[in-house]
Amino acid sequence: MAAQIYSGEKYASRRREISANLAKRPEFHDSKPLPFMTREEKILESSRKLTLISKHMNEIIDPSDKRELYHLNCEVLGIEGNPMALHGDMFIPALTAQASDEQQEKWLSRALRREIIGTYAQTELGHGTNLRKLETIATYDVDTQEFVLHTPQITALKWWPGNLGKSSNYAVVVALMIIKGKNYGPQTFMVPLRDEKTHQPLKGITIGDIGPKLAYNIVDNGFLGFDHYRIPRTNLLMRHTRVEPDGTFVKPPHAKINYSAMVHVRSYMITGQAIMLAYALTIATRYSSVRRQGQIDTTQPEVKVLEYQTQQHRLFPSIARAYAFVFAGAETVRLYERVLQEVETGNVSLMADLHALTSGLKSVVTHQTAQGIEQARMACGGHGYSQASYISEIFGVAVGGCTYEGENLVMLQQLARYLVKSAGLVQAGQSSKLGPLVAYLGAKSDSTSLIDRTPTPGFAEYVKTFQHIARKQTLKAAQKLFGFMEKGDTREVAWNKSTVELNRASRLHTRLYIVEAFVRRVEEVADPRLKEVLTDLLRLHVNYELLDVAAYALEDGFLSSSQLDYIREQLYFYLAKIRPNAVSLVDSWEFSDRELRSVLGRRDGNVYENLFAWAKASPLNKTDVLPSVDKYLKPLMESARASKL
Ligand SMILES: CCCCC/C=C\C/C=C\C/C=C\CCC(=O)SCCNC(=O)CCNC(=O)[C@H](O)C(C)(C)COP(=O)(O)OP(=O)(O)OC[C@H]1O[C@@H](n2cnc3c(N)ncnc32)[C@H](O)[C@@H]1OP(=O)(O)O
Ligand SMILES: Cc1cc2nc3c(=O)[nH]c(=O)nc-3n(C[C@H](O)[C@H](O)[C@H](O)COP(=O)(O)OP(=O)(O)OC[C@H]3O[C@@H](n4cnc5c(N)ncnc54)[C@H](O)[C@@H]3O)c2cc1C
């Protein structure tokens, strides 16, 4: 099963080897539990381990293999980030996609060797979503052939970029490019921030950390201001866009080609989110198979809480989602790599499809992941609320994904633009022009769903039902938009009046895609035992997801209430059928205890002993009487006692 999750036996077994190798190297392990450390201690600890990784990486992994590096980072550094997180996630991808060969020789090679540390500085105090209204300006000075970077007002301060505050000495900075008074929109520049020897900020740069966040606090998200700060013309990233010495602008082959670093993260983060969801479910499912509370049969001992249907309903659909997301994530990464290669040859035809797909997936997956993690925390009762479970940190990190790389409701609108165009083609009788991701929009629905109208409905009946729902909502939302426009609204006003419906269409389209990705993967599985378990999980998934969106199919009679009853019964049937395999389904992700960092979720199942040992190690228990008691509580109680006398 691990080979299914990790798209092949090769990487699945490499993960095991890497974990086994690290198990023998105590210097790579957390020196104490992360929840017991201050933010400063965590940053120090993470930097220590980062240095070890840089020194010994070649003995443990093939450093050219991104997935091996990812696993090494998960084991050693964990999810709370590290001082070079953005260096790998965005700085290197931005240089790879946007720097010219010459620039890559100068900077990318140094970045890969970790001679310099970089980040991606785009968001500002006043603007994150609307990139065209960024306020940092890069004005071209033809005389000196330099760009002058400037922060004209407080809202123009860069704000949020990861590792900007304290760790990075370079950044790919996004600024509005002005040449001879003309605004050429957001462009990307390579900008030195700190002296390479002293790490002091360079003259003209104001820089620092933005302070603690909900989670992800090892990362020093930062602020950055420029005071007429000059960089050479050749620091504009010029793989696709160019500015000649005389200020002539040479257009890229696609207007949004500079957004590639964002698309990179959006493509990879689907898998990252699936893994975080699986972390939380591993913890909660293992704990639920140890925790005993209450009885189902009063003549029998107390049961494991995993025997309760409500507990299964709380956890198993999310287990299915974690599988679905990792399968969908593998597809987005493949598509991203393909588009990256095609862009190199000047073919930008798939950029819009990739953008639409990743915008929708990013939004749906992060939202459902956060919901699933929070349910997993609650499924652990009181102990879920303790940081010993580590689920609160997993939630905090994962839920950030709803905001970073494009606020979810905004990104759903990006997909909606694509869907509306596709709906326009259908309306114009040009369905043959629809791309493969939206071809179903041009098909005709059956009059009713065939679910439960055939002896054992196959996945095709479910897929057709999801297609019907997504098609109906897309065409209806587009119609609403077109209707407002026909009545005289501008497109923008009409759009704003239709966005709740448009975003619904985007979610339904994306949920259909996720179901299809799951079906595609299960169909490929050859091993019959594995296929049976995955088929059960897929059946749970399609029934659960369909129930969740059934209102759309009930309102036009595509599904009847008796079919809905059938879907509910199927769901309950598969909850029970999956129960014996539940622990194996989470264990199949093969997370080591070190990677999971959870006292509740350890493989040995000795929950109570482990919890007690953890509590005893809490910094508060170092002494029996705290200074706060000596200083305040004792005098308080003493004076209360004295006044009573
Ligand atoms: C390697 C492992 C990684 C795992 C990661 C795991 C953990 C990560 C941990 C921590 C966080 C790490 C990073 C976070 C970093 C950041 O958050 S960086 C900042 C990200 N910021 C955003 O995402 C901003 C969101 N805003 C936008 O993207 C754009 O402003 C917009 C909303 C897309 C609008 O852009 P705009 O230029 O105004 O375009 P407009 O709306 O006018 O659209 C014009 C057409 O262009 C199309 N389009 C837009 N973007 C793209 C694109 N990327 N590719 C292709 N096409 C694009 C758009 O759809 C429009 O097309 P039409 O045909 O006209 O409809
Ligand atoms: C953990 C974390 C890490 C980050 N790392 C980086 C980084 O490394 N580099 C970087 O540059 N940035 C980074 N960011 C910033 C992040 O990318 C932005 O915060 C994000 O893109 C959202 O933009 P915003 O903050 O401007 O939100 P806003 O756009 O202000 O969103 C506020 C609300 O307005 C709504 N809204 C906005 N526009 C519209 C619209 N057109 N239609 C309808 N509703 C709208 C949103 O849906 C939301 O409800 C990070 C953020 C976080 C939380």
TrEMBL record:
<comment type="pathway">
    <text>Lipid metabolism; peroxisomal fatty acid beta-oxidation.</text>
</comment>
<feature type="binding site">
    <location>
        <position position="162"/>
    </location>
    <ligand>
        <name>FAD</name>
    </ligand>
</feature>
<dbReference type="InterPro" id="IPR037069">
    <property type="entry name" value="AcylCoA_DH/ox_N_sf"/>
</dbReference>
<feature type="domain" description="Acyl-CoA oxidase C-alpha1">
    <location>
        <begin position="259"/>
        <end position="420"/>
    </location>
</feature>
<dbReference type="InterPro" id="IPR009100">
    <property type="entry name" value="AcylCoA_DH/oxidase_NM_dom_sf"/>
</dbReference>
<dbReference type="GO" id="GO:0055088">
    <property type="term" value="P:lipid homeostasis"/>
</dbReference>
<dbReference type="InterPro" id="IPR012258">
    <property type="entry name" value="Acyl-CoA_oxidase"/>
</dbReference>
<dbReference type="GO" id="GO:0005524">
    <property type="term" value="F:ATP binding"/>
</dbReference>
<feature type="active site" description="Proton acceptor">
    <location>
        <position position="405"/>
    </location>
</feature>
<dbReference type="InterPro" id="IPR036250">
    <property type="entry name" value="AcylCo_DH-like_C"/>
</dbReference>
<keyword id="KW-0285">Flavoprotein</keyword>
<dbReference type="Pfam" id="PF14749">
    <property type="entry name" value="Acyl-CoA_ox_N"/>
</dbReference>
<feature type="domain" description="Acyl-coenzyme A oxidase N-terminal">
    <location>
        <begin position="1"/>
        <end position="117"/>
    </location>
</feature>
<keyword id="KW-0576">Peroxisome</keyword>
<keyword id="KW-0067">ATP-binding</keyword>
<dbReference type="InterPro" id="IPR055060">
    <property type="entry name" value="ACOX_C_alpha1"/>
</dbReference>
<protein>
    <recommendedName>
        <fullName>Acyl-coenzyme A oxidase</fullName>
    </recommendedName>
</protein>
<keyword id="KW-0547">Nucleotide-binding</keyword>
<dbReference type="InterPro" id="IPR029320">
    <property type="entry name" value="Acyl-CoA_ox_N"/>
</dbReference>
<dbReference type="GO" id="GO:0005504">
    <property type="term" value="F:fatty acid binding"/>
</dbReference>
<keyword id="KW-0276">Fatty acid metabolism</keyword>
<dbReference type="InterPro" id="IPR002655">
    <property type="entry name" value="Acyl-CoA_oxidase_C"/>
</dbReference>
<dbReference type="GO" id="GO:1904070">
    <property type="term" value="P:ascaroside biosynthetic process"/>
</dbReference>
<keyword id="KW-0274">FAD</keyword>
<dbReference type="GO" id="GO:0071949">
    <property type="term" value="F:FAD binding"/>
</dbReference>
<dbReference type="Pfam" id="PF01756">
    <property type="entry name" value="ACOX"/>
</dbReference>
<feature type="domain" description="Acyl-CoA oxidase C-terminal">
    <location>
        <begin position="460"/>
        <end position="638"/>
    </location>
</feature>
<feature type="binding site">
    <location>
        <position position="123"/>
    </location>
    <ligand>
        <name>FAD</name>
    </ligand>
</feature>
<dbReference type="GO" id="GO:0033540">
    <property type="term" value="P:fatty acid beta-oxidation using acyl-CoA oxidase"/>
</dbReference>
<dbReference type="InterPro" id="IPR046373">
    <property type="entry name" value="Acyl-CoA_Oxase/DH_mid-dom_sf"/>
</dbReference>
<keyword id="KW-0560">Oxidoreductase</keyword>
<keyword id="KW-0443">Lipid metabolism</keyword>
<dbReference type="Pfam" id="PF22924">
    <property type="entry name" value="ACOX_C_alpha1"/>
</dbReference>
<comment type="similarity">
    <text>Belongs to the acyl-CoA oxidase family.</text>
</comment>
<dbReference type="GO" id="GO:0003997">
    <property type="term" value="F:acyl-CoA oxidase activity"/>
</dbReference>
<dbReference type="GO" id="GO:0005777">
    <property type="term" value="C:peroxisome"/>
</dbReference>
